[in-house]
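Weekly sync, protein design subgroup
Attendees: M.S., D.O., the rotation student, P.L. (late)

Item 1: inverse folding check
M.S. brought a backbone from last month's batch and wanted to see whether the design step gives back something sensible before we order anything. D.O. pointed out we never logged the input encoding, so this time it goes straight into the notes. Structure tokens as presented (250 positions):
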């Protein structure tokens, strides 16, 4: 269980995350939605302990991320926004390095690295340096380092950003396969992704929660005057998203 309790993050006078509270339970795949600048990445950095909140607290299975960071972080796999930042390393060397940081050695290390390379489809590029990879493969390397220690909690910041439709499909499938008995929080502004992989969605705008429910519940709440010409599911979710996030909307 992740408990996020009244977290606020200010940058000078600007409030990026504004008194957010929610909990996520085992087995939930939570879609974290919101327009650009809504505060998604900032919230994820706070949950994973990369950024301190101005106030509020986060616990991962009872471990406070600020006061018990090693116990909390050992339960978390995190794919930050952007790509992994070790361009000169080969994919295999990078993943071995991460495995060592996560405390694996010897056969266990080799086994973990081999398994993750195969699970995310990196076999053909494992001896290439990261800088020579396409964007899609770089994202896969990011995913590989996040799941290598089989963490109970996965925090994925726009995992399909910049991927082509086939790669998006593969990553969504991977998330669905990983999700069993884990806690997954995945941010996106691609609404079709939410219906495809999430059991629950939270929409944030200007640092505050404006909706929380199953994708189907949120679609059903799309007001008539925001309905699009497309009445199929993604269109309805889009209508609801716009109704709660556009400036001036009720
Ligand atoms: N280090 C920072 N300094 C100042 N402002 C920041 C910083 N990080 C994020 N922000 C601002 O906080 C807001 C939320 O950013 P972010 O969490 O990245 O949004 P999202 O991921 O939803 O697009 C944005 O307006 C952004 O410019
Ligand atoms: Mg972001």
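Designed sequence read out in the meeting:
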């Amino acid at each position: 269980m992740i408990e996020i309790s009244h977290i606020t993050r200010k940058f000078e006078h600007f409030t990026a995350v504004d008194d957010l509270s929610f909990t996520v339970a085992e087995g939930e795949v939570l879609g974290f939605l919101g327009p650009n600048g809504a505060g998604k990445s900032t919230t994820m950095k706070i949950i994973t302990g990369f950024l301190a909140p101005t106030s509020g607290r986060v616990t991962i299975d009872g471990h406070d991320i600020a006061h018990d960071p090693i116990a909390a972080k050992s339960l978390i796999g995190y794919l930050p926004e952007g790509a992994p930042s070790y361009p000169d390393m080969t994919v295999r060397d990078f993943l071995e390095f991460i495995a060592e940081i996560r405390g694996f050695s010897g056969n266990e290390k080799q086994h973990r690295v081999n398994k993750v390379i195969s699970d995310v489809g990196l076999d053909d590029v494992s001896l290439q340096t990261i800088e020579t990879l396409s964007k899609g493969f770089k994202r896969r390397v990011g995913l590989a380092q996040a799941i290598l220690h089989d963490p109970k909690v996965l925090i994925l910041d726009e995992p399909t950003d910049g991927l082509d439709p086939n790669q998006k499909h593969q990553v969504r499938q991977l998330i669905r396969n990983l999700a069993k008995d884990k806690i997954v929080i995945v941010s996106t502004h691609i609404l079709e992704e939410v219906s495809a992989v999430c059991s629950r969605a939270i929409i944030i705008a200007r640092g505050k929660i404006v909706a929380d429910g199953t994708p189907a519940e949120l679609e059903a709440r799309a007001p008539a005057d925001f309905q699009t010409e497309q009445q199929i599911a993604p269109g309805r979710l889009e209508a609801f998203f716009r109704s709660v996030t556009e400036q001036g909307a009720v």
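Discussion: The pocket of magnesium ion (ligand 2) is lined by residues 40-41, 81 (CB under 6 Å). The chain has nine helices and ten strands.
Action: P.L. to compare against the previous round before Friday.
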